[in-house]
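Lab notebook, bench 4. Continuing the backlog of folding jobs that were queued last week. Each job is logged with the same field layout so the records can be merged later without manual cleanup. Today's entry covers DUF1559 domain-containing protein, a 322-residue chain. Filled in by technician R.K.

JOB TYPE: sequence-to-structure
TARGET: DUF1559 domain-containing protein
LENGTH: 322
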Amino acid sequence: MNLSQNSDHKNLRRKQAFTLVELLVVIAIIGVLVGLLLPAVQAAREAARRIQCSNNLKQMGLGFHNYHAAYRKFPVGGAGAASATNAFIKKLWRPSWGTSLLPFIEQPGIYEKLDMDVSYLDPANHDAGAEIVPTYLCPSAPKSTLLRPNGDNLSSTVLFGRTDYGGNYGERGLRCAPLKNCPNNYSDIGITDGVGRGVLLFGKDGQLGINAILDGTSHTIIVGEAPEGLHSIWIGHKNLFDQSAPISAHVLPGTDWVSCSPGLNSREGNFCDLGQEFHSYHVGGSLFLMVDGSVRTVTDDIDLKTFAALLSRRGGEIVADF
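JOB STATUS: finished
OUTPUT FIELD FOLLOWS
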């Protein structure tokens, strides 16, 4: 009687155990489920990051319009030191639109620390310039939140807060094709004394009112994504000028637009570098703030002349849609 009960108990335990084949089947099913769910989770996370990036741009748009309501003009891209000898360079070395916008994006504390009468490279601005401004950071960009302004004569211990956004100086860039046709100086490509055809220009004389946006506020870019490149710091002007040549090209007699291959989001190309183009870590396109405060997605395959029209405030182009 006891032997029979023990035998039945052993058989029951044997039936309840997993076989090796069953275990492998379960593992395979789990692997398939993970393979199906992981892309969906990653897509959901990127969608959330894209929404946050869009909200950053919308907050900047509100800041620009509040600034305009206060001063009847938009801020300058960068205001330079009068002591500079070069008419173009002297437009560059004061703090940028990123600093002027601070009181209008709920960052008055940082703004009050800044000395707007000296270069952003001045030691007086190092502490304030190292502050992190969340509105200027796209969550999809993986780079460090603090950067050394590469190329400037600063100690390696000096770091400034990063920005992932660049201002629109205009559609004219600093590169051309074929290379033998490259201009010898900025004036050859229409940049005279720091004046471009975009919205955020250099020098106090370059401040624009909304009535200067002749192509329409909903068809003119004011700020776009530019998460990498030299000098990508919110306090400085340089990210604004370098990154405001988003298609790394300009029109010269006998030439045409130069494409950043393979698209807007390309981080490398024959005529491109990260300091010369708008780009992003989003899939399929980059986000841009229009002068009217709306945020639009520009896809990688946008026609370059259409893109150039969006970067010009007074080109007279008609852009039906993009």
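OBSERVATION: The chain has one domain: 42-311.
SIGNED: R.K.
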